Amino acid sequence: MFGDFQGMMGKLKEAQQKIEETKKRLDTVYVEGTSNQGNIKVTITANRTIKSISIDDSLLQDKEELEDYLIIALNDALKKANSINDSEMAAAAKDGMPNIPGLDMFK
User: Fold this and answer.
1) Residue 31, SS3?
2) Confidence at residue 99, expressed as pLDDT on a 0 to 100 scale
3) Per the database entry, which stretches of residues form a coiled coil (predicted)?
4) From CA 68, how far away is CA 86, in angstroms rounded?
5) Contact (CB, 8 A) for 33 and 45
């Protein structure tokens, strides 16, 4: 029995290591979000860290319009990053999970 338990614990540690490696790798995956007209571009990592924001000069005259477009671009980038992050983390967790009866949520 203890051999099985130790094997499961080893698998769990491997899963945790894969998840940590995936998190580090996702820091190097860049996603770009844009506003509807492309006058704002936001670059973030798949771990949802903002790396850059580019704003067209034409928006600098209208604060409210700038804010609206910025929200659109940020939400676009976050949606893409969330999708990548969720699928990559689920794959990492699934690969490393031991086969525990009743805990097949990642299968």
Assistant:
1) strand
2) 57
3) 5-32
4) 27
5) no
DSSP 3-state assignment of 20?
A: helix
Q: In terms of CATH architecture, what is 2-96?
A: 2-Layer Sandwich (3.30)
Give the Cα separation of 85 and 23 in Å (integer): 8
Query: Shortest CA distance to 92 belongs to which of 9, 11, 21?
Result: 21
Whether 5 has a pLDDT exceeding 80, the answer reads no
pTM of the model: 0.72
Residue type at 57 in one-letter notation: D
Rounded CA-CA distance 100/4 in Å is 11
| Structure token digits, residue 16 | 């945790």
Q: Is there a contact between 92 and 19 (Cβ–Cβ < 8 Å)?
A: yes
Q: Which residue has the tokens 């996603």?
A: 31
CA angle, 88 then 41 then 79, to 5°: 30
